[in-house]
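Dear colleague,

Thank you for sharing your sequence with our group. We've completed the structure prediction you requested, and as agreed, I am returning the results in plain text so they can be pasted directly into your records. Please verify that the sequence below matches your submission; if there's any discrepancy, let me know and we will rerun it promptly.
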Amino acid sequence: MTILKIMGIDPSLRNTGMCLADVDIRNGEIDWRAIAMVQTKAADKTKMQRQNSADLASARELHRGVHKQFAEWRPQIITGEVPSGAQDARAALSFGMSIMLLASVPVPIIEVTPKEVKASTGKKSATKAEMIAWARDLAPHLPWNTHKSKGQVILNADNEHMADAMASVTACVQSTQFMQMMAIYSTKAA
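Please find the predicted structure tokens below.
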């Protein structure tokens, strides 16, 4: 076996981006196969919906969406940023849900840091727009979210979540942990 299927996940409470890549363990080359996103809605204040009920519904929707993609894509490895450091209670809730979402997927996970994710684009302080442009340049064949403005096709800002998932895969493939795993798989394949 020379190809590993890796699923990148950029988890968050409202927009969880995902990607699938085939990675050749002989040389680390990445073949981008798919992108997807799960989006949830905040509590509907006009219907007097309780915040905790909306949060539970969001958690279920995220779990369902990520596990649907997992079942469809059948990756051997997951990678993503594991959030840390919350400024307030809502951020802490989002971080907790994101960590639980990553932990719920039943394959090994290679954690990457926010610095590694941004650096994988070639720019340590890449903006959201630069991350999206980087990912689109790598995989123009994937179904990016777009809209038309003045006759031009424009990439939507929500593509940042799928772009971050792709950057997570790139950072993963460059990590020491992945290189050690490649050595093990290469030995087994020989």
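Summary note from our side: Residues 61 and 178 are 30 Å apart (CA to CA).

Kind regards,
the structure core
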